[in-house]
Amino acid sequence: MKLIPLIKPIIVFIITITSTLLFVLQFPQTKKTSFEPNLHSMSISRSFVLWLHGLGDSGPANEPIRTLFTSPQFRNTNWSFPSAPNAPVTCNYGHVMPSWFDIHEIPVTADSPNDETSLLKAVQNVHATIDKEIAAGTNPNNVFICGFSQGGALTLASVLLYPKTLGGGAVFSGWVPFNSSTIIEQITPEAKRTPILWSHGMIDSTVLFEAGQAGPPFLEKLGVSCDFKAYPGLAHSISNEELGHLESWIKARLQSSS
């Protein structure tokens, strides 16, 4: 293992936090708009969007994201921005910080090692949240899981390992966090019908673009539909352009009431 300067744990933490702040500060002020006339008579079903943040971040810091989703189709959407538990992280020399699962190295490459044991524990927690929402009356086809960086990797695993078809999974600057055949064999035919949106900045130096590019071929082999979007000039952060596309992508898949 290569020796890495001790300052790196602090840098990794700062990169994660500032990435969130960058897109939060970019959010424009939104104005309340009236619903489109043809939507007055349309019954909009309950939907659910679960957002999973990146390493060292928090759920509340990401809540401004919802303010960009101003389309009337989201007026009956339940949003959830949970925070990861505090845990020691290997890439930060065991320092304790908010983390969904362990990460062995930063930057993350297409060949980085995975910690599948801690990943599967996190997946179980995400599945419990999804189960609760579906039990409350939300159609699984109107459940969307989204995540940035580590949260994006967890999004991918959670969607692929959920036994039902969901509305979709959106991965931002994430990677494929598992490769064992034992896990791959658990992916059901229903899960393979859940569409994936994958967005990645081309100058990302934290989760390298190559790690993102490895996602579509992996999903193609599984028979999973993936819409991959590359963003030139974007580093390890989320842009308004990405979130605008996400809004349109979800809108196109929302199921209305019968």
Question: Could you list some keywords that capture this structure?
Answer:
258 residues; alpha/beta; two-stranded antiparallel ribbon; 7 helices; globular; disordered N terminus
- Percent in strands: 15-25%
Helix fraction bin: 25-40%
Termini separation comes to 58 Å
Order of helices and strands: HEEEEHEHEHEHHEH
Q: Supply Rg.
A: 18 Å
Biggest beta sheet attributes:
6 strands, parallel
Major β-sheet strand ordering? 2-1-5-6-7-8
Number of helices: 7
Topology:
Elements: H1 8-26, E1 47-52, E2 77-80, E3 86-89, E4 95-98, H2 116-135, E5 143-148, H3 150-161, E6 168-172, H4 181-184, E7 196-201, H5 209-213, H6 215-222, E8 226-231, H7 240-251
Parallel strand pairs: 1-2, 1-5, 5-6, 6-7, 7-8
Antiparallel strand pairs: 3-4
Helix pairs in contact: 2-3
